[in-house]
Write a structure and sequence with these properties.
The complex is a heterodimer of chains A (283) and B (412).
Chain A (H helix, E strand, L loop, with lengths): L8 H12 L3 E7 L5 H14 L3 E5 L10 H12 L4 H14 L5 E5 L1 H7 L1 H11 L3 E4 L11 H6 L3 E2 L1 E3 L8 H5 L6 E4 L12 H12 L6 E4 L5 H7 L5 E4 L1 H10 L9 H24 L1
Parallel strand pairs in A: 1-2, 1-9, 2-3, 3-4, 4-5, 6-7, 7-8, 8-9
Helix pairs in contact in A: 2-4, 2-12, 3-11, 4-6, 10-12, 11-12
Chain B lengths: L16 E2 L2 E5 L5 H15 L2 H13 L7 E3 L1 H10 L7 E5 L10 H14 L4 E6 L3 H12 L4 E6 H6 L1 H9 L3 E5 L6 H14 L4 E3 L10 H9 L1 H14 L5 E6 L3 H7 L9 E9 L11 H4 L1 E5 L1 E6 L24 H9 L2 E7 H15 L5 H13 L8 E5 L8 H7 L5
Helix pairs in contact in B: 2-4, 4-5, 4-9, 5-7, 9-11, 10-11, 14-15
The chains are: A alpha/beta (283), B alpha/beta (412).
Pathway (chain B): Amino-acid biosynthesis; L-tryptophan biosynthesis; L-tryptophan from chorismate: step 5/5
EC number (chain B): 4.2.1.20
Organism (chain B): Siculibacillus lacustris
């Protein structure tokens, strides 16, 4: 059985929402997009707008699993000078005013490898990070980061995909904790909308293998989709739509007075969607 | 095959590692595909019919074996610099005479047979200078499979003749505008395509890099270079050469030449990276082993050009085929082990070697092996006349005449 003993803000938040009877809204934005100060303002505004879990992208020069929207967000952040130490600093500043909202850092392995795995894990915990999602570290590479992260009490959130069959799922789930991130489509972030029926079947399949909450992402952009997927998923992840809203609010690449409200308005819509999910499912 | 316990030719291990390097650092969506590919390749290796079909195509379609040629006038040139006292014989393994004009066809033929065997119906590939794109388009045409080539928008602009060649061969060329629009960005985009079209698509990687099993598989398909070299040199001289040398971008022609010689301690092995404007120039070269450090990109751990935050740098070289911020993982391992010596050659040195080879041998080499030739021109005069160096002349220079003209200030 999957080890769920690593208790973090993530596990506590999912447990509380399960008791409440609704799925979590998991929001993704890229750290430092479009600049560090605006990014901090966005992240600080997310919980009040209805985000239950915050995924914070660690920008990387070569985001192989991401579609155009998140690629562009990462490039804006890097062009504005974002680095991994600055991303940790952003979490530290957020955490100073919010002790409960879970933060998951999401990205690619190389910047962490260069920062130094042990130092990164220690600094992430100290900054108030709860979990990690590292796209290019499959379970075959668990000794790289997953196990050191677990050792210091970080959740290592695993991606499962439509290609992850029943034979492979146990390996994928072996060292997973926090929640399982089900990638709803074969493809990159922000692709075609997932088929809600197929996703529901996949979520049930994963739940037969684990007691961990299952959140669904890739291609979810509207409140309607969030409501449909939230019918049996424990969380709905929205990323590309939020960073696209940031992009649309910019003026010549720079933040405007519309930038933070553009994100919070969309998050509020999506939050209404996940809150309606089970009500609708019960109809 | 018998395994020698302390052979340098046993890698990678079952997880795809050459020591610290290599591995399978890919997204979960790709992991089952990579495992399927590994199994399919293991099956193909054990099937004599696969080897027989590849051998037949290599002879009748690609034109193998390629000649091993004694470059008499370059040898004399180097000897003259020492007053006739020193100067190793310079030999060339003529991979530029292969169909499509480079070593790339060796790998493409092997992989297209594998793709067919796996029942895949669509080929994707990345390309920098266009040599691998042309070779991929060629084998796709030969086997009637649609081919999509991802090429950085910057490279599309500076390699127009190869873009047109690919289109003539029926391939679709997609310019990639993300990042700086060069080879690494093309590889990112090919990976994005693969993850989206997993059922029917085969990703034909052009160099001995990427997630396991690609580095080992591409090496195996390219090892025909070193195997033939060994036989041909033995037949010509009754011994092994004193040194073999090749240029390194991703390093597929080099590992193909080197691998059969790794357990021959009497053969010195040299790899030559693109020194660009000079190793000391920040982001001004593409010498990942001389001027980079280990990191993880495109599915493997290897030496990479990167900044202090682990962001990948673009690199620079006069040769678009060497303009890649990484290198095949087996090279990283061979570097650390000390078996192979890796050195840089600058744009200028490569250009000078390009000119000299054209004038003295009547062979216009590609700019990529011109880097290796630049190192040969430094080494040969220091070696005894009884010694020999074999250079892998990995490609012909027709594709480079426009950019060379530009560097020389000639209008065409």
């Amino acid at each position: 059985m999957t080890d769920t003993t690593i208790d973090t803000r993530i596990t506590r938040r999912f447990a509380a929402l399960a008791a409440e009877g609704r799925p979590a809204l998991v929001t993704f934005v890229t750290a430092g997009d479009p600049d560090l100060d605006t990014s901090l303002a966005i992240v600080r505004a997310l919980p009040a707008a209805g985000a239950d879990v915050i995924e914070l992208g660690m920008p990387f020069s070569d985001p192989m699993a991401d579609g155009p929207a998140i690629q562009a967000a990462g490039k804006r952040a890097l062009d504005a000078g974002q680095t991994l130490p600055k991303t940790l600093e952003l979490v530290r500043r957020f955490r100073a005013a919010d002790a409960v909202t879970p933060i998951v850092l999401m990205g690619y392995y190389n910047p962490i490898y260069i920062y130094g795995v042990d130092r990164f894990c220690a600094d992430a915990v100290a900054a108030g990070v709860d979990g990690l999602i590292v796209v290019d570290l499959p379970p075959e590479a668990d000794d790289e980061l997953c196990l050191p992260a677990r050792a210091v009490g970080l959740n290592f959130v695993r991606l499962a995909t439509p290609t992850t069959d029943d034979a492979r799922l146990p390996a994928v789930l072996a060292n997973a904790s926090g929640f399982v991130y089900y990638v709803s489509i074969n493809g990159i972030t922000g692709s075609a909308a997932p088929d809600a029926g197929a996703v529901a079947g996949a979520v049930d399949r994963i739940k037969r293998h684990t007691g961990l909450p299952v959140a669904v992402g890739f291609g979810v952009r509207t409140a309607d989709q969030a409501r449909a997927i939230g019918g049996n998923a424990d969380g709905v992840v929205v990323g590309s739509a939020l960073v696209a809203a940031i992009a649309a609010s910019l003026d010549a690449g720079r933040a405007t007075a519309r930038t933070v409200p553009a994100v919070t308005a969309l998050v509020a819509e999506l939050a209404a969607g996940v809150r309606a999910a089970r009500a609708r499912a019960a109809e | 095959m018998t395994t020698i316990a302390n052979s340098l030719r046993n890698g990678p291990d079952e997880r795809g590692f050459f020591g610290l390097y290599g591995g399978r650092f890919v997204a979960e969506t790709l992991m089952p595909l990579i495992l399927e590919l590994e199994q399919a390749y293991e099956d193909a290796k054990a099937d004599p019919a696969f080897a027989a079909e590849l051998a037949d195509l290599s002879v009748h379609y690609a034109g193998r074996p390629s000649p091993l040629y004694y470059a008499e006038r370059l040898t004399e040139h180097c000897r003259a610099l020492t007053g006739g006292k020193f100067g190793a014989e310079i030999w060339m393994k003529r991979e530029e005479l292969n169909h499509t004009g480079s070593h790339k066809i060796n790998n493409c033929l092997g992989q297209i047979l594998l793709a067919r065997r796996m029942g895949k119906t669509r080929i994707i590939a990345e390309t920098g200078a266009g040599q691998h794109g042309v070779a991929s388009a060629t084998v796709s045409a030969r086997f009637g499979l649609p081919c999509m080539v991802y090429m950085g928008a910057t490279d599309v602009e500076r390699q127009k003749p190869n873009v047109f060649r690919m289109k003539l061969l029926g391939a679709e060329v997609t310019p990639v505008t993300s990042g700086a629009g060069t080879l690494k960005d093309a590889m990112n985009e090919a990976l994005r395509d693969w993850v989206t079209n997993i059922d029917n698509t085969y990703y034909l990687i052009g160099t001995a890099a990427g997630p396991h099993p690609y580095p080992a598989m591409v090496r195996d398909f390219q090892s025909v270079i070193g195997t033939e070299t060994k036989e041909q040199f033995l037949a010509a001289k009754g011994k092994l050469p004193d040194a073999v040398i090749a240029c390194i971008g991703g390093g597929s022609n080099a590992i193909g030449l080197f691998h059969p010689f790794l357990d021959d301690p009497g053969v010195a092995i040299w790899g030559v990276e693109a020194g660009g404007h000079g190793i000391d120039v920040e982001n001004g070269h593409a010498a990942s082993m001389t001027g980079g450090r280990p990191g993880v990109l495109h599915g493997n751990r290897t030496y990479l050009l990167q900044d202090a935050d682990g962001q990948i740098l673009e690199g620079h070289s006069i040769s678009a085929g060497l303009d890649y911020p990484g290198v095949g993982p087996e090279h990283s391992w061979l570097r650390d082990s000390g078996r192979v010596t890796y050195v840089p050659a600058t744009d200028r040195e490569a250009l000078d070697a390009f000119m000299l080879c054209s004038k003295l041998e009547g062979i216009i080499p590609a700019l990529e092996p011109s880097h290796a030739l630049a190192q040969v021109l430094k080494m040969a005069p220091t070696m005894d006349k009884s010694q020999s160096i074999v250079l892998c002349l990995s490609g012909r220079g027709d594709k480079d005449v426009f950019s060379v003209a530009e560097h020389l200030g000639e209008r065409m």
